[in-house]
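All the exercises in this workshop are built on plain-text protein records. There is nothing in a record beyond a sequence line and a structure line. A learned vocabulary of local backbone shapes supplies the integers on the structure line. The question running through the whole workshop is how a given chain folds. Here is such a record, shown just as it appears in the course material:

***
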Amino acid sequence: MTTASPHAADVLVIGWGLAGLVAATEAAAAGKNVIIVDQEPRTNLGGQAFWSFGGLFFVDSPEQRRMGISDSLDLARQDWFATAGFDREEDHWPRQWAEAYLQFAAGEKRAWLREKGVGFFPVVGWAERGGYTATGPGNSVPRFHITWGTGPGLVAPFQAAVESAEAQGRITVLPRHRVTALTSTAGIVTGAVGEVLAPSGAARGVLSSREVVGEFEITAAATVISSGGIGGNHDLVRAQWPANLGTPPTTMISGVPAYVDGSMQPVAQRAGARVINGDRMWHYVEGIQNWNPVWPNHGIRILPGPSSIWLDATGARLPVPLFPGFDTLGTLAHLRTTGHDHSWFVLSQKIVEKEFTLSGSEQNPDLTDKDVRLLLRSRLGKGAAGPVQAFLDHGADFVVRRTLDELIAGMRALPGGEALDADTVRREVEARDREMANDFTKDAQIAMLRSARAYRGDKLIRTATPHRILDPENGPLIAVKLHVLTRKSLGGIETDLSGRALGADGAPVPGLYAAGEASGFGGGGVHGYRALEGTFVGGCLFSGRTAGRAAAAAV
């Protein structure tokens, strides 16, 4: 084992996800020398944001106005705070971060990104629709803006800025450097020490070795922790599982690579930082096993349109308003009461063609590669999009059959399928279809489907024309087994509005900052208990920018 020569910089950034790249580029733009370290090989520059769909939350944007959407800061504030449900003493700074982020999303956020060359898909999506009252959780209007180029398109300008500054000698990037402790002098954080891991040729997202070949030491006047969350560490997810979501699942799949392990949380705490709201987390209930996995236990989230029938493991339909795309954590809380770790979508070929989108940059080659011809063919043409068809052909969780009896038999043949009651499934599906006979209905999901198509974006690419699922003309029938998919930490290192890490006494820890998921996307939990979607990479942008500018100003 070798000990590397000490490194020195004005600003040290730990973690090269989106928040870290933004913090580093902001500090370098202010004339500071910056070092970025990460435990992974350089192929992973950009972190989890690279794999993302690149959804961004804007308020009263040009894209919204062109789609006929009337939005306002007051309406967005109403939605955010109703969804967050802040109710703890620890929510002092998260509340202030929420207000600051809303001002950013309604103000300079879009123009700032446009100046960097980031563009947006013109159709605005409607995620987390709520389905409760005006003061309940959810987005009152569509606000989900897809980055043209998805996650890679969002990472690209900041990666380019890092590489440009690196060529000029203002940023140094050190892959395979795992921080094990922060160093302090007279109570001031002065950098970090850690282990140098063996070089790795692992591709992006692929599990890399943890062989230690050396040690390192870095001194810095300011240190920014931007090391991400805990979603790849299922043991830690279960240990911090919130009581309000019931018991943690026995089996889960991973929506993030294994390196999202939470290893910097105890390091930050030993240096005096306070980690709050650790029991607040954001996991999806529409997870499917990736037929072509990159990382261990790799899962993909279905971004569902609103038409699929959602059944629990026994075949009972989920209660109002737990329809696809309406209330992620409300659905998770309900499903945890069923005693099973999975649920089901039942749908038709017409629904899968119109409504199924898969989360992630690699699952959306048309948007990621900015391929207009492929986009028109995949989103508006006949047949399922290529990545969706691949899951229909190869996915372990997909059942495709001609008749309902055959479909139920296929569902029961999958692991855990024995819990399914065939009579219950048949009753739910047939009863739903009877409601399609005329324009009147007592089925809230059908009424919502008809209403949703009044929005041009839903009618164009997101919501299938309401129809009887069992009509052979709409077939074949499809069932999808759904798993809990780990994803985001909503809590993290408590920070003030400058991104300074705070200690147990509420005072800043001198020399220490935090950003991104490591800080709960700002303040230690800017989302509260629930999120509105399009707010995760946006929170990385905002908190990374804030911490990078503040760290640079302080040195």
